Amino acid sequence: MKVLGQFQNKIAPLGFEIINDKKTRLIENIKKQVISLVQQPQAPQKVKLSEYLSNQLHHDYTHLSNLFSTVEGVTIEQYFINQKIEKTRELLVYDELTLTEISYRLGYSSVAHLSRQFKKVTGMTPSQFKQLRDSNQRQSLDKV
Fold first, then answer.
1. What 3-state class would DSSP assign to 123?
2. Residue 14 banded pLDDT, cuts 50, 70, 90
3. With the C-alpha atoms ordered 48, 53, 56, 61, is the resulting torsion angle positive or negative?
4. Residue 7: its pLDDT value, please?
5. Residues 6+ positions from 114 with CB-CB distance below 8 Å
């Protein structure tokens, strides 16, 4: 255990920690599975998040949900939405897909649904985000 303590002391200043209890590992696995689902290159099949996590982690969803909410202070569903909005922001910055393509890819039922969630999470619409991004990237000709 002495070596483990020394290792923990070395990695702590770097922002890392050792995950050595079951609950913490399970929460990290939930996050990993949610992020993996969001990062899929194609539109996810219409699978329920609860079924997906239960199947992947071999635990009852109610248990997963209660544990996650208690420790993280946010529901799994809200964490999932936040990850999807972060992915939307990333895709908008790359400017390779239309909002329609992004909404399909992330499993939204419509562009309007994505836009509502985007505004609720970020405080701005996807169009406003894109305009803000464009205004920060473009320089006037006299500054080039």
1. coil
2. confident
3. negative
4. 77
5. 88, 99, 102, 103, 106, 108, 126
d(CA 41, CA 10): 37
Q: How far is CA 25 from the centre of its chain?
A: 18
Residue found under tokens 């998040």: 49
d(CA 134, CA 37): 29
Domains and their CATH numbers in the chain:
20-143 (1.10.10.60)
Distance CA 112, CA 54 (A): 29
Q: Which two tokens stand for residue 12?
A: 């702590």
Q: Give pLDDT tens digits for 110-134.
A: 999 999 999 999 999 998 888 887 6
> How far is Cα 129 from Cα 66, in angstroms, rounded to an integer?
34
- Which pLDDT score is estimated for 139? 46
Q: What is the pLDDT of residues 84-108, one digit of tens each?
A: 999 999 999 888 889 999 998 898 8
Q: Which amino acid is at 134?
A: D
47, 6 contact by CB (below 8 A): no
CB 40 within 8 A of CB 51: no
